[in-house]
Write a structure and sequence with these properties.
- Keywords: Aminoacyl-tRNA synthetase, ATP-binding, Cytoplasm, Ligase, Nucleotide-binding, Protein biosynthesis.
- Belongs to the class-I aminoacyl-tRNA synthetase family.
- It catalyses: tRNA(Trp) + L-tryptophan + ATP = L-tryptophyl-tRNA(Trp) + AMP + diphosphate + H(+).
- Its main location: cytoplasm.
- Catalyzes the attachment of tryptophan to tRNA(Trp).
- The two termini are about 30 Å apart.
- The relative contact order is 0.15.
- It is built from 14 helices and five strands.
- Helix 3 packs across helix 13 (about 270-295).
- By secondary structure, the protein is mainly α.
- The strands form two sheets. Strands 1-2-3 form a three-stranded parallel beta sheet.
- The model has no long low-confidence stretch (mean pLDDT about 95).
- The chain binds adenosine-5'-diphosphate and sodium ion (NA).
- Adenosine-5'-diphosphate binds near residues 20 and 24.
Length: about 325
């Protein structure tokens, strides 16, 4: 394909995605479909590197996939699938583990962080080799570019090193992927604590806007969002973090500039602004929620869609894995 291949994985780590995930990542993933060949993977093999409840994991994988589909990931232009449905990921990870230096793996800082967080009992070999599995995910598809945040940069470097090393040792096999630095993407803050990033581990549920919240709840969260004592709708990250966050959300969803929105609410106060913003957000999220619930209500249809994704992914992955096996002498 002429379109550059990108790979991105998402953790099935909560029952609902939140507005930060949506505006900060998912919207961008949907846009990338226009001129890329995206491989989007719900990474359940990665998820079990930290303790999981099996019932919750199974449910969260389906909910995560359903929300991506509902938000506009299009199976005609993208490959969306569940990692454990494509055995080549685990198989290539094994081969790559045999060319990964122990010391090299031991330098991964995310292992140290997660190990400290989850404790000695959860400090497993699987957690340690997580970055090798991530390298396999990326290299299986001839990925040209990987959208990465700062937390994954070191893992992408390892992926590049492993690809180069395998190619040098066994002959040219893998594409060495680049980092795709996303164009300015929105960073969304908590509605009750607008100096903290919106996160699934929010201190108060009122500050966290979930894609699957009932629309009435979403509207209420916006109407009671923390602002400040002034009354001007004006962007000022330092002095007015609450209003600035709401302006970013408004702008990001409507596609209008912050200046344009400020002008519209000039002299009108916070009440109107928050009421209109609630409407703008609900109008955008309600159809995504409805489509997600529809997909979750029809397990056979969701299975069918995930089956299409898994077949497409497996077909591509097996070509690369076959080449790898051949190179190493299997
Ligand atoms: P959380 O912080 O809730 O645990 P994740 O770490 O699972 O979310 O993030 C999944 C994706 O969503 C990542 O690409 C991340 O950059 C993006 N993301 C998460 N929170 C925000 C936010 N508040 N604003 C913008 N993007 C976000
Ligand atoms: Na996070």
């Amino acid at each position: 394909s002429a379109r550059p291949v990108i790979f991105s994985g998402m953790q099935p780590s909560a029952g609902s995605l939140h507005l930060g995930n949506y505006l900060g990542a998912l919207v961008n993933w949907v846009a990338l479909q226009d001129d890329h060949d995206p491989i989007y993977c719900v990474v359940d093999l990665h998820a079990i590197t930290v303790p999981q409840d099996p019932k919750e994991l199974r449910e969260n994988v389906r909910r995560t996939a359903a929300q991506y589909l509902a938000a506009g990931v299009d199976l005609e232009r993208s490959t969306l699938f569940v990692q454990s449905h494509v055995p080549a990921h685990a198989e290539l990870a094994w081969v790559l583990s045999t060319i990964t230096g122990f010391g090299e793996a031991n330098r991964m800082t995310q292992f140290k962080d997660k190990s400290a967080k989850h404790g000695a009992d959860a400090t497993t070999v699987g957690l340690f080799t997580y970055p090798v599995l991530m390298a396999a995910d990326i290299l299986l598809y001839g990925t040209d570019a990987v959208p990465v945040g700062d937390d994954q940069r070191q893992h992408l470097e390892l992926t590049r090193d492993l690809a180069g090393r395998f190619n040098a040792r066994y002959g040219d096999t893998f594409v060495v992927p680049e980092a795709l630095i996303p164009k300015e993407s929105a960073r969304i803050y908590d509605l009750q604590d607008p100096t903290s990033k919106m996160s699934k581990s929010a201190a108060s549920p009122a500050g966290l806007v979930n894609l699957l919240d009932d629309p009435a709840i979403t509207a209420k969260k916006f109407k009671s969002a923390v602002t400040d004592t002034g009354r001007e709708v004006r962007y000022d990250r330092e002095e007015k973090p609450g209003i600035s966050n709401l302006l970013d959300i408004y702008s990001s969803i409507s596609g209008r500039t912050v200046a344009d929105i400020e002008a519209e609410y000039d002299g009108r106060g916070y009440g109107d602004f928050k009421k209109d913003l609630a409407e703008v957000v609900v109008d955008r999220l309600a159809p995504i929620r409805a489509r997600t619930l529809e997909l979750l209500d029809d397990p056979a249809e969701l299975d069918r869609l995930l089956g299409i994704g898994a077949d497409k992914a497996a077909e591509r992955a097996e070509v690369v894995l076959g080449k790898v096996y051949d190179r190493v002498g299997f």
